[in-house]
Amino acid sequence: AKKGKTPEEVLKKYLQKVRHPPDEDCTICMERLAAPSGYKGPQPTVKPDLVGKLSKCGHIYHLHCLVAMYNNGNKGPEHPNPGKSFTARGFPRHCYLPDSEKGRKVLKLLLVAWDRRLIFAVGTSSTTGESDTVIWNEVHHKTEFGSNLTGHGYPDANYLDNVLAELAAQGIAEDSAGL
Length: 179
Ligand code: NAD
Ligand code: ZN
Prior knowledge:
Bound molecules: nicotinamide-adenine-dinucleotide, zinc ion
Shape: elongated
Helix content: 10-25%
Order of helices and strands: HEEEHHEEH
Radius of gyration: 21 Å
Low-confidence stretches: none
């Protein structure tokens, strides 16, 4: 099985090297950015004096601190059994939204959720009981059109509000999509 990217490889995509760190603290370890990282973790994989700037938000941290935070984060495992092969059933999956202002807003936020890898997970399907398979994550989708035999169809007067709340619970609010 192909090994996933290392935390350093993932982080590098979002980082610019800072050669002359500003006279500020790293808010992860609370040491000065110009001093080495104060984080004493197991087996440092990057030099403790490297400093990086996150390109989207501009925040600056020790690279070593970012790697430690990434490894400790509550991101959750992307696969409960890393390295084990997994299946994907019923793809492509099709979902339906009303072509209304709110429906279009939900669509934009779902695209943000997709980009953040939050729509699907690998796990055990509660429908089929199959393990190591791609399943919907915490955000509900309407996969039935014109009827509601599965319970995943319309009408459902609360769906758009519910899915907006589910998206918000994943950290995706209306301002995430520049709305
Ligand atoms: P699951 O059963 O592990 O449940 C995870 C979440 O998905 C739950 O919140 C559940 O309510 C929701 N969910 C379950 N079935 C759904 C459905 N048909 N449409 C929308 N949401 C659904 O999830 P899973 O294993 O990813 O999906 C359940 C089964 O439905 C799978 O066997 C899959 O193949 C099948 N499915 C088929 C299609 C299709 O277009 N033919 C689309 C979606 C899902
Ligand atoms: Zn630090």
